[in-house]
Amino acid sequence: MKYRRARLTVALLRYLLVTALAFLAVLAYAGVGTTEIAGLEGNGPVTMFYPSSATATPLERGPFKLALALNGPVVQGNGRLVVLSHGSGGSPWVHSDLAQRLVEAGFVVAVPEHDGDNWHDASKRGPASWKRRPSEVSRAIDAVAQDSRFAPLLSLDRVGMYGMSAGGHTALTLAGGRWSPSALLKHCEAHLSDDFQTCVGAATRLRGNFLDAVKIGVAMPIIRHRLDDSAWYSHEDSRVQAIVAEVPFAADFDFQSLAHPRVPLGMVVLGQDQWLAPRFHAGAVLKTCTACEVLADVPLAGHGSLLSPQPTRLGGIEGELLRDPPGFDRSIVPAAHAAIVGFFRRQLLVLK
Residue 351: what pLDDT? Predict the structure, then answer.
């Protein structure tokens, strides 16, 4: 009993020490800096958010008006890195509010630009991108490790990773999941009308009229051609020690491979997701992964409801799928982000 109490006392002291150091580190800087570093050869740039001694100034990136310290001096935070994997066709800026919350907690945040599946170039969406994305996360960590401004301030043995949508697919892969295009084909053959956007993206929608049968008939041969690959894909990076998957694309996974993730896995579920029907994706993961921690389960939120700032200029079907559904209250977004930050604090800052 005395030994057990002693262990608990040591663990408590470690927790208090890490918390105190993190708090003091946060007090040492004034703002959230952002800069871009070069990816390794063959990879796109990596956008960084980090503790800075500079104060924020107005910054425009595309349609977004932000307040960040562009190229501000880098200062010590809590010594931990979190890599964010954006969604299909996404950018760093729709995740900048979450990134800022992470920086305010002392983290440095890296957002790699996924090749052929970003806001500049969406020519390689789908399996072609999913095969590369996990290694692009690993190579982003490598790029940070080679940067003279960031490397001395970080311990890269315990890195966090967050991914949303296609980035959530990346997150599940890094958590130990294996996936196959042929598994997605089987899913689409069985559930095309119930999970239509998963299988066809934003190309078209079912509208409940006579054209639906035509759309399904046209889509299925294309899907069979695109998903003619029975190989299983996986990726491991031992440096990644805590993962969050938000509305992940998951229907193509072997769910048993996620029954016991190799690292702590947090999940974000948005109940009105019309792009990735929750019961086939996040819900299916949680049905198998009883150890997964649900960080946020928001019944009235849509696929893009936690993006902040939102991509307001999107039109057409993509805009329909990403806009907030009726009744969603965006005032809850900071609380959802706080839950994600809290997960990384618990998993990465407390000494194990």
Answer: 61
Q: Rounded distance, CA 79 to CA 57, Å?
A: 25
Residue 226 gets the label, from left (phi > 0), alpha (psi -120 to 50) or beta, of: alpha
Is residue 216's pLDDT more than 50?
yes
Q: What pLDDT does 2 receive?
A: 41
Give me the sheet containing 31-37, strands edge to edge: 57-61, 64-70, 31-37, 46-52, 108-112, 81-85, 159-164, 240-246, 265-270, 293-298
Structure tokens at 85: 């994997």
Distance, in Å, from the CA atom of 40 to the CA atom of 142, rounded to the nearest integer, reads 8
Domain ranges of the chain: 2-179+234-349, 181-231
Closest CA to 116 of 169, 185, 43, 173: 43
Helix (H, G, I), strand (E, B) or coil at 151: helix
Of 309, 304, 322, 324, residue with least CA distance to 61: 309
Q: Which two tokens stand for residue 129?
A: 């991108």
Q: Do 240 and 174 contact (CB within 8 A), yes or no?
A: yes
Give the distance, in angstroms, between the CA of residue 43 and the centroid of all CA atoms in the same chain. 18
Q: Which residues contact 197 (CB under 8 A, 6 or more apart)?
A: 205, 274, 275, 276, 321
- Compute, in degrees rounded to 10, the torsion defined by CA atoms 109, 113, 114, 119: 120
Q: Which CATH superfamily is domain 2-179+234-349 in?
A: Alpha/Beta hydrolase fold, catalytic domain (3.40.50.1820)
Provide the token pair at 228.
């003619």
Residues 319-352: tens digit of each pLDDT: 889 999 999 999 999 999 999 999 999 999 976 5
Average pLDDT taken over every residue of the chain: 90
* Separation of alpha carbons 261 and 226, rounded Å: 29
Is-contact 271 283, C-beta < 8 A?
no
State the pLDDT at residue 208.
87
Indicate the length of the chain as a whole number.
Answer: 352
Spatial separation of the C-alpha atoms in residues 320 and 156, rounded to whole Å = 39
97's tokens: 């509010």
Q: What mean pLDDT comes out for the span 22-35?
A: 66
64-70/46-52 β-pairing: unpaired
Rounded to whole angstroms, how far apart are CA atoms 97 and 103? 10
